[in-house]
Design brief:
Number of domains: 2
Structural class: alpha/beta
Helix content: 40-55%
Shape: elongated
Largest sheet: 7 strands, mixed
CATH topology of the largest domain: D-Maltodextrin-Binding Protein, domain 2
Distance between the termini: 51 Å
Number of helices: 13
Order of helices and strands: HHHEEHEHHEHEEHHEHEHEHEEH
């Protein structure tokens, strides 16, 4: 079959805006026209594309959305070859975890934005970014998942090192004898959010068994989390790239300097991608492998 471009653009707008009325305003058509186009596309494909409660794509809709994104990138690449001085910018999205964005990914994002793109960064925990990619909402993502979904490639890019840190005053008050179970249960930790599992991983590896029930503050940005630790409200796991200057100055100390946590990261992208999308993946991979720790493939995470 031959896809109807209006129907594809309408479907993409509904998924992006999660609302038929908002999509209608953006496309300058009636809400009825939006509904008719979606129904016609579903009938032509013989499959439902949207879960109407929330207007999120079905598995078939995810495949169509990836097709729309690839089509836009292919058109932009072709136009760039014909008219290199074109002023139009193609919208693309990349999913990345907050810690990466606050450290090694920031210069990559700036490099991408300098190209002929309008860049959207979708930020989520590294264990949850993959779903953004498979739904067709991004052209690539940074994830902890080492296995790629069908139609995608997962490339190892390195590991983010985290250290457990606190102020000297906090350590004296809460951990006078080191990280003992009784003190861990009583001392407040500073976590990113409720999805943040790295603190629990650190404690389990340190003690040899899982631990729950400890007090925790939630500061949902890397800058805010580090600020909370520096302010002495708790202790927490912070990327080494971010915290090293404060360790060097003595403002913070490492509570377990020999027990860093390394979180392996992977760049997931389309298996078949237009040249401009491939160029973005190459840019991300090249910079990540320079900035992140490169653990041997057979080496277990510490």
């Amino acid at each position: 079959m031959i896809f109807d471009r209006q129907q594809l653009e309408t479907f993409s707008a509904v998924v992006e805006l999660r609302n038929f009325g908002a999509a209608a305003k953006t496309l300058n058509v009636t809400r009825g026209a939006v509904s008719q186009r979606i129904i016609a596309l579903e009938e032509a494909l013989g499959a439902p594309l949207l879960v109407r409660d929330g207007n999120v794509p079905t598995p078939a809709g995810e495949a169509v959305l990836r097709h729309v994104q690839a089509l836009k990138l292919m058109e932009a690449d072709t136009l760039g070859q014909i008219k290199p001085d074109t002023n139009g910018r193609t919208g693309i999205a990349v999913a990345v975890n907050a810690d990466s964005l606050a450290t090694w990914f920031e210069p990559v994002a700036c490099d991408i934005a300098r190209e002929n793109f309008a860049l959207e960064l979708i930020v989520d925990d590294q264990d949850f970014t993959l779903s953004v990619l498979t739904r067709g909402e991004a052209i690539g993502c940074v994830s902890t998942a080492g296995t790629a979904s069908t139609g995608f490639v997962a490339e190892a890019i390195g590991a983010m090192e985290y250290q457990c840190v606190a102020t000297p005053t906090f350590c004296q008050a809460h951990f006078p004898h080191g990280l003992r179970l009784h003190d861990i249960l009583a001392a407040p930790a500073v976590l990113f959010n409720r999805k943040d599992g790295i603190h629990a991983v650190f404690l389990e590896r340190l003690l040899g068994f899982p631990i729950r029930g400890y007090a925790a503050h939630y500061f949902p940005s890397p800058v805010a989390l580090l600020m909370g630790v520096r302010a002495g409200v708790g202790y927490g796991l912070v990327p080494s790239m971010q915290v090293q200057p404060f360790l060097d100055s003595g403002e913070l100390i490492a509570l377990a300097p020999n027990d860093s946590v390394f979180v392996r990261l992977y760049w997931h992208h389309w298996e078949k991608a237009p040249p401009n999308a491939r160029a973005i993946s190459e840019m991300v991979i090249r910079h990540a492998r320079q900035a992140l720790s490169q653990l041997p493939p057979e080496s277990p995470d510490r």
